[in-house]
Amino acid sequence: MPRFEQRVLLGSVLVALPALLAALTLVLVRWEEPRRWACIAIAIVATAWLARWQYRRVVFPLYTLSGLLEALRQGDYSLRGVQGGVLGDAIYDINALAERLQRERLEFEESSYLLGKTLAALDSAVFVFDDGHRLRLLNPAAQRLLDAERHQLFGLSAAELGLASLLEGPAARVLTHVFPGRNGRFEIRHAPLRSGGRGGQLLVVNDVSRVLREEERAAWQRLLRVLGHEVNNSLAPIQSMAGTLATLAAREPLPEDWREDFRGGLELIGHRAEALGRFLSSYSKLARLPPPQPRAVELSTLVAKVAKLEQRLAVSVEAGEPLSLQADPDQLEQALINLLRNAVEATLPHGGVRLRWKQDGERACIEVEDDGPGPPPSDNLFVPFFTTKPGGSGIGLALARQIAEAHEGGVALLAREDARGAVARLWLPVRSPAGTADPGDSVE
C-alpha cells in the first residue's frame, strides 16, 4: 500500500481510538456520573485534537500538490516539491513533468527566436492569415511592403490590405503588382496552414524586379561586349584601309599599280562590310524568333530529313521507336540543323556523326553525337554571339536553346562518357506545350 494511504489509514484509526477507549471504559467500569462525564469530555477533546492533527497531515501535502499543479497551469515551471514527503512518488512525477515542460518551453522559445530572426532577415515578405483571412503574423519585409506600422496592420482582412487577389489563383506565379511601399514584378506563393485545429493561409511575396534588372543588365553587358567586339573587328580594317587609300589617292603622281591597290582595298572593305551585315542579320534572326505553332510531328521523318540536308558528311541515323509529339516542325528542324552543323564541323575531315531519338518519361529526347574533340571548356557556349570557331556567328546553340525553351524543353552540350567527342541533347515534352496553340486551332 502506498505510503500516503498508510498514513491516512493509521491517522483515521488514531482519531477513532479515544472514542473507542471511552466507550469500552464506560461499558466495563461502573463509574459514577461525574467521572463518566469527565471520561466522555476527555475522549471528545482527544478526538478533536487527533482529528485536527490528521487534517493537517492529509490536507497540507494536498495543498502543496495543488500549488505545484497550479504553477504548472500558470506556466511557472521553476517550483519543485520535496520528494521525501508523504506524496513522494506524486511529487517526483510532478517535478519530472515540470522539468520536461520547462525544457520544452526553452526549446520552443529558442525556436521561436530563431524563426523570428530568420523571418526578420528575409527579403521576402511573409504574411500569415487565420481562417477568417485576417492578418496574424508578418515580418519586417512585409511591413515595408505595405508601408505601415505593425499595430496598424494586425487584425485587418486580406481584402482591406489589398492582398485578397494574391491568395487566389495558382499557388506560385509571377506578376506585376502595386503595393503601398513598392511596385514591380513579384513572385507570389501561397499555401494553406493549420494551427490549433483551425485553418489559415501563408502568403509569401518575393520581389524579383531587382534580380530581373541585374540579369537584364548582365545580358546587355554581354551583348554590347560581343557587338562591340564584332563591329570593331569589321570597322578597324575598314578604317585602316580607307586611310591607306586616301593616302594613296593624295600621291602625285599616282603609282603605276594604284588600280590594283585600290581594287584590293575596296574588296577588303566590301568583304568586311558583308561580314558585318551577316552578323547583324544573324542578330535580327535571333531577336525575331516567332512563337511556335505546334502540330503533330513524327520524329523519325523529321530526323531523317535533317540528316539528308547535311552534304559534307554522311550522317548516321539510329532508328528508334515511333514517337510523335506536338511541336513547330520548322523551328525544331532549324534547331536540329544548327546542332548537326556544329557536330559536323567539329568532326571534319574525319570521324562520324550520329542522330538518334528516344522517349524518356514524358520527354522526347533527340541526341546528336560526334567523334570530334569534345565541347570547349567554356560556360558561355549558349551565350548569343559567343563562338570558338573562326568565322562563326555564335547564334547556332543560342537559337537552338531558344527554340527548345519556347517548347518548354531545353538543350545541353555534354562530353561523351564512352569515347572522345560530344553529345548535343535536345528534349521536348511529349504533351502539347502550355500557352501554345493546339493543332486544330486556327492561327491568323
Automatic annotation (TrEMBL):
This is histidine kinase. Signal peptide: none annotated. SUPFAM superfamilies: ATPase domain of HSP90 chaperone/DNA topoisomerase II/histidine kinase (SSF55874), PYP-like sensor domain (PAS domain) (SSF55785). GO terms for molecular function: protein histidine kinase activity. InterPro entries: HATPase_C_sf (IPR036890), HATPase_dom (IPR003594), His_kinase_dom (IPR005467), PAS-like_dom_sf (IPR035965), Sig_transdc_His_kin-like_C (IPR004358). It catalyses: ATP + protein L-histidine = ADP + protein N-phospho-L-histidine. The keyword Repressor does not apply.
